[in-house]
Amino acid sequence: MLLAAVSGCSENNPVKQQSKPSLVSKQQALIADGQFAAARENIDELLSKKTLSEQQRSELLFELERMQRIERDFSAELGDVRAYIEKHIGAVTDQQLNDWINQGLLEYRVIDGETKFFRSAGYNLFQLDEEALAKREGYQPFIERAPLYALHQHHSEIVASANIEKPNTEKKRFKVKYQLTVKANAVPEGEVIKAWIPYPRDIENRQENVRYVNSKPAVHQIAGNDNLQRTIYFEASAVKDQPTEFWVEYEYDTYGVFYDIDSEKITPVMATEETREFLQQKPPHVVFTPEIQALSQRIVGDETNPYKIAQKLFAYVDSIPWATAIEYSTIPNISEYAMTAGHADCGQQTLLLITLLRYNGIPARWQSGWEFSPTSFDTMHDWGMVYFAPYGWVPMDVTHGVLESDKDDEKWFYLSGIDSYRLIFNDDYSAKFEPEKQHFRSETVDSQRGEVEWQGGNLYFDQWSYEMQWQDVSDASSLLPDEQSSEFSLKNLDSEQVVVVVTDDNTAIQGKLYSFEKHINSDTGKPEWLAANINTDIVVGKTGIAWGKGLHPAQPGQQKQEGDGKAPAGVFELGTAFGYLPDLPTGLDYEPMTATHFCMDVAGSPLYNQIADSKVVGEKALEGNSEPMRRDIHKNDQVYKKGIFVHHNPDNIAGNGSCIFIHLWRSDDSPTLGCTAMEEDAMDALLTWLDKDKKPLMVTLTKAQYVRLKDSWQLPDLDLN
What we know:
Distance between the termini: 94 Å
Number of helices: 17
Number of domains: 4
Structural class: alpha+beta
Radius of gyration: 29 Å
Strand content: 25-35%
Shape: globular
Helix content: 10-25%
Largest sheet: 10 strands, mixed
């Protein structure tokens, strides 16, 4: 009879770390044995007791959550799996199915006596079994679709150009837009949805010049760069029957890295402040169990050279076939799972390798994010870092593994190098967020998709979707200001609208604002700036203007500083509109402000130059700031009734100026503290005209600067008489 060979549970036995099982470990043992009903009954009874500690209560509640996640992962019947397989290769026999099951190729669990299959079991069969794959015409397994999983010219270029003084090479710049969309009616109307989207870390010689570009909502909180799982945090209220969107755009530089390791120079590592943490166990996923120790002995044998040990361990883990993963939050010990399941994905392989390396006295640590490619391929991905003395920390990626090459430096590229197509969010796993999440995380280990919650609890992955868009913008037109050449010009910026502000000189408080739109000249076929219908008086900072930080190259002369009363000069992106009203007619994204929204102008704050809500970050985090976004409530004026965010100092460099807007003026002779202001009718026209899809820019210059830079920056024609 079909399935006669199926018995027991496919999950490993949990690691025994204490002689007397705890309340939670007893329930985990039942869950591992597939006795979900008994575990639920026990947990419900335990939760009714008042003697439980908060930690015990939280752990027991998570076991209830974990069972739900396991049931979601293992939700397929054998008939579902069979239908998927037969859809691609035609009819299969009962014997074939039983053979695949007994070989561990169709992952399953027995839950309360019922055999349930992993919902991706059919998909994984074609990643794991060559015979089944051969019958599926024209199909490539996932790993084979990725160009950098085999030896590529890119690897050879990195190896050839790197040296001991400069192992980082082959720099690229990427522009990313990541969107997270919560399904309509996932939470009740009016409830606040909180979202954490992964955000790149600045890492010297690996990932640098991270630059925030835009987001929805515009109000956000970027975690400090020292957060090992860095995020950008948002809030938005749910609207009935409408999905809730969160997205962020940013750019960053990334480097290929390669260290040409000489194994004879490698020495054992002593535990120091830099390495001690990464030689230790980190339960539950990095544990030196008896099974890990026995596996290590079989692989390593009598080898004593740390690099050669690492090569043996790397090659072994690389030999474990790749397959899509069950949810990490459901696995008691991920490295042990990778050792026993017969297959593993990138994070599972990486944790197993980290465990084996640490057990052998070789420091190793986690790193993860996304990987791109010279083609359109991209995916969430996990890899790591390994420490070899005297070289220090070097990258490793065991899923890319050992490359087929006669040259050792290319063959072992991913044991001491990394390609230029990486996006690093995380330098550890299971690290705290900023601000902290109140409810259970959907992904308790990694952080690549994002996290969402509301006051009623966590929103799991099935309640929202995500989309990663990326673009290689390594050409000169996309370089950061300090990298741009004198050839910088507006034509090289992907914008179709520009707002130009001109003052008489750098001390003038009044000026003019003009609007232009890009059109293609029908005679020449070339783009040109044509005047739009907005031309109005404005006021700027009380001490005039000074060079700010934006898209333009660094310029000589006075530079904008915090508190100097100057509006920034230069070229800047225009962002989201904001105001006191629930909505405004505008082609920009719009964010209504509340009494608890402030812009942080305290240079020492991690929230510097960012909008934050005191209800979210706490009043203490905003101490000392002087920039409430509801000035009608706090300062009895209407200047922020309608406004637009100007992306000045987008890297939020402390002291370089913060909270720059276009907003309403008090009068035509009342300057600002550093913004640009105008009358309300003009603001209404400007808001209506601006279109976020046309990527509008703002150019602010004195007349003399405009004349000097007009040709080289290819500014619109303007009569300055």
